[in-house]
Design brief:
heterodimer; A: Rossmann fold; seven-stranded mixed beta sheet; 26% strand; B: Arc Repressor Mutant, subunit A; three-stranded antiparallel beta sheet; 3 strands; 53% helix
């Protein structure tokens, strides 16, 4: 990327960073982004092209060139110099092929858990663990009601002690800020360990 | 697939599809010259403004949208093109120096992480 370096050296101090919000369908990812984002959450579509070959023969369907899947995201300006992007993962495992692109370069991830449907988040937990991406687990407490003890959640997900498991309210700004801080602190802990 | 076709009015589907196929914009290319992460920030450069009138519709639209800093994902969303197409266009514009590219920070950067933590607490 030789072209970019001269531009960057003269560019104003503005660094984009990204966190990923993962978890099953309806667990509160969009609410989370909506609560903290400065812009109304928008979505973008990633085209299934090469991966769709043989699965979705677009030549058979008139007027249809690509199959797309939407990703919701929002952003907030932090400390003047950062543009923090929050990307919600597509809910289903079958969109797993998109995760590599979505997650690449992320500072960390927040895995949202619905304690009635643990199955929905195992994919995310495995994904981030396998790739050494710092993450925290968030139990979204609708109506301030916790269906499981947080220790039970930790046990059910079989995550290590270094992974924070926290309850929060996706509709509350202070609460979502707390989750962002938690995952960044986890990322800092990991970065410090790697630098020694 | 035949069930699907029976259930849907194909004329209506055809009307809803874009007039220009996404990959026509990129002249059939699906690989971008630069593989931008989706949060990479893009800002139109002075050269980009000068080139505005000679650019194709989508390229000009991107230049217009990026007068304010936008991520690759936002560009795709606002211009209403798939991410892959946005990357191809942005790669071309970057190569010509028509946009400035701000690369994402790293999760191994402890100073960056500390500033972010303090910054979010202060929000």
């Amino acid at each position: 990327m030789a072209f970019a370096h001269s531009e960057l050296s003269t560019a104003k101090n503005l660094t984009p960073v990204k966190l990923v919000i993962a978890g099953g369908f309806g667990v509160g990812k969009t609410t989370f982004v909506h609560t903290i984002s400065e812009i109304r959450p928008v979505s973008t579509e990633a085209a299934m092209t090469e991966v769709s070959i043989g699965v979705d023969d677009t030549s058979k369907v008139a007027g249809k060139t690509t199959t797309t899947v939407a990703m919701d995201f929002g952003r907030l300006r932090v400390d003047g110099g950062f543009m923090l992007y929050l990307f919600g993962t597509p809910g289903q495992d079958r969109f797993g092929f998109m995760w590599d692109d979505l997650v690449r370069g992320a500072l960390g991830a927040i895995v949202l858990v619905d304690t009635r449907r643990f199955d929905d988040c195992w994919y995310a937990v495995d994904y981030f663990e396998d790739r050494d991406i710092p993450f925290v687990v968030g139990v979204n407490c609708f109506n301030a009601m916790l269906h499981h003890d947080l220790d039970d959640v930790r046990e059910a997900l079989a995550v290590g002690d270094h992974v924070p498991v926290l309850s929060f309210d996706a509709r509350d700004k202070e609460s979502t800020k707390g989750m962002l801080v938690a995952v960044l602190e986890r990322a800092l802990e990991r970065a410090l360990l790697r630098s020694v | 697939m035949s069930d699907w076709m029976e259930e849907h009015d194909l004329d209506e589907e055809a009307d809803a599809s874009p007039v220009v196929r996404p990959y026509f914009i990129t002249k059939g290319r699906t690989r971008a010259k630069v593989d931008f992460p989706i949060e990479t920030l893009i800002v139109t450069s002075a050269e980009g403004e000068k080139a505005f009138s000679r650019l194709g519709f989508e390229q000009a639209h991107v230049i217009e949208v990026c007068r304010a800093a936008r991520s690759v994902a936002e560009v795709a969303s606002i211009v209403a093109i798939p991410l892959g197409v946005a990357r191809v266009i942005l790669g071309d514009l970057a190569e010509e120096g028509l946009i400035k590219v701000y690369e994402p920070g790293s999760r191994d950067d402890t100073a960056l992480l500390r500033r972010l933590i303090d910054g979010i607490r202060a929000l």
